[in-house]
Design a protein that fits this description.
single chain; alpha+beta; BirA Bifunctional Protein, domain 2; SH3 type barrels; 2 domains; 7-stranded mixed sheet; 5-stranded antiparallel sheet; 5 helices
Length: 242
């Protein structure tokens, strides 16, 4: 694996995708930036991060053809790789909030952006972007549910070795042929618990998360017993609204 450190870049995912397009010889490349000025989240959202305080990085893995038709399988594997990286730090109550937010004690500590590399009609690799709040303690008012490792552990953490560990875990996870769906569900936030939800049209209801479909939809059992599937961004936890 090639490891690259940048002082600043708009987006590590964009940097890495351009690198891969210009040089096709590498199996795995990882890049992290001390300051990511225009970090991107899923579906057009932004990832806000203070300079020199957090882990903002991306990993490219070539030939992830076993997940050719199911990006959500990659999503599950990557989330579990982040869990594997954070668990040795003894961060309490680590959970995955569907589809891929990483929580500690009901607050967001990290997130993921997965972008496949397509040549023709084939996925020849994948770029996995990951943001983890490490040493930042004060967050923008628009992020009331954000937390960091320092806020939890009350100590600074070196970012570079943390990223190296994360990059290795992500590379290993992406290359696995078997997807650990059971483990993903085992750490899924609020599985089988009654929660308050709101749909994108403003309808509120209560229900229990029953699972996640193979293509990544959240399965919710409503109070009246109806089971419905929800795509990303069509449903939010009321507790996380602001």
């Amino acid at each position: 694996m090639i490891l690259i450190k940048l002082s600043a870049t708009p987006s590590t995912n964009s940097f890495l995708k351009q690198w891969v397009q210009e040089s096709k010889a590498h199996e795995s490349i990882a890049v992290w930036a001390e300051h990511q000025t225009e970090g991107r989240g899923r579906m057009g959202t932004k990832w806000l991060s203070k300079a020199n305080l957090n882990l903002t990085g991306s990993v490219y893995v070539r030939n992830s053809s076993q997940h050719q038709n199911n990006i959500f399988n990659l999503n599950k594997q990557v989330c579990l790789a982040i869990m594997d990286t954070l668990e040795p730090l003894k961060i309490p109550e680590l959970r995955i909030k569907w589809p891929n937010d990483i929580l500690s004690a009901n607050k967001k500590i990290g997130g993921v952006l997965i972008e496949p590399i397509i040549r023709g009609t084939q996925m020849t690799g994948v770029v996995v972007g990951c943001g983890i709040n490490v040493n930042q303690e004060k967050f923008d008012a628009s992020l009331p549910f954000a937390t960091s490792i320092k806020s939890i552990k009350k100590q600074n953490l070196e970012i570079e070795p943390l990223f190296e560990s994360l990059a290795k875990n992500i590379t290993t996870a992406v290359r696995l042929e078997q997807v650990d769906h059971k483990r993903y569900l085992d750490v899924l936030y609020k599985l089988n618990e009654l929660c308050a939800f709101k749909t994108k049209d403003g309808t509120s209801f209560r229900g229990k998360i029953s699972g996640v479909s193979t293509d990544g939809k959240l399965i919710v059992t409503h109070d009246n017993g109806d089971r419905k599937l929800y795509e990303e961004k069509t449903l939010v936890f009321t507790a996380f609204q602001h």
